[in-house]
Amino acid sequence: MRRVLALLVLVAVASLIVGCAPQAGSLAPQKTQQPVVLRYGDCETGEALEPAKKMVQRFSQRTGGSYTIELHHVSELCEVPEILDAVRTGAVEMCYMPLGVFTTVEPRFISSELPLLFNSMEAAVQALDKLIPLWSEIMEQRFNQKMVAGWIVPPLEVVLAKKPIRKLEDWRGKVIQSISPSISDTISILGGSPVALPWTEAYSSLQKGVVDGAVASTMQVVLYNLNDVAKYVSCSYLFLAPNVVTINLDVWNSMPSDIQKILLEEWQTTSRERNEYFIRKAKENLDTMRERGMEVILLDKAERDRYVQAVKPYVDKAIADMGDFGQKVKQIADEVNAKYAYPY
Length: 344
What we know:
Blueprint: H1 2-20, E1 36-42, H2 50-62, E2 67-73, H3 83-89, E3 94-98, H4 121-142, E4 145-152, E5 156-160, E6 175-178, H5 181-190, E7 193-196, H6 202-208, E8 213-217, H7 218-223, E9 232-239, E10 242-248, H8 249-254, H9 257-291, E11 295-298, H10 301-321, H11 323-339
Parallel strand pairs: 1-2, 1-3, 6-7, 6-8, 9-11
Antiparallel strand pairs: 3-10, 4-10, 5-8, 5-9
Helix pairs in contact: 2-9, 4-11, 5-10, 10-11
């Protein structure tokens, strides 16, 4: 009887140990050590923020609490133009940024904001797998940070208050809001007159007649009700720009390799979830804009090809100016465009 009782005790203890063991790919909980906190600034809100929230929880669980991510809206940590320097210095450990904003600091980042470079969102998403390592190398060499994630937001198109753009000639004489140098260049090439204004001023500028139109993401049109002040949106996948996440390189290098692996895996999952979400929203946005009374103009391939030819000297020069880096970007774009046709 004593032997049976002892055996039962041993089985119970063994079961308890197995039940408390960490899951595969996770670390045992750390009870005596204070967790390392990584502050992360994200630009999204609402349902677009959900993948990041889930990632934060998964990361903490998998590290056993030894490392945690503290989620903030980026505005709580720094202003958007300061993100690159904030991560470089370690003032912010990890942050989400629109890469094209920093083209004036690093000319090769224009590769993230060349007009009509990709045929579709699906093409641009696939290109990211090869573009992120190229951009990360620049970040590590020049800006003391490593790129760990990226996704493509719904395309930047041209929205118009009173008169539509249905063909290349319709750009002529129109004053169009621009939010970056490459967008300004593109507007000029297509025949319009760019006016540099923050994206937050699109609504008021259209409402007051300061501009005839604005280059804006279809996500921005829907979320900020630009349909109240714009009657038309002309769609050609004019710009497909990525948002990326970087981490301070000193912080990254201080991490044990198992924590680095977990962080990269979780960001890969989050990137996939956000790309799936934004591809779905890009399609839904077209219906939403129609439901709100906007005329959605989908340029056919023949007309879009005229746009492509118009901007080709500009794009070719930008690629040439980037040397070998530019040729790699062109090769990546050509490969994905061969797989994904322009859908309109």
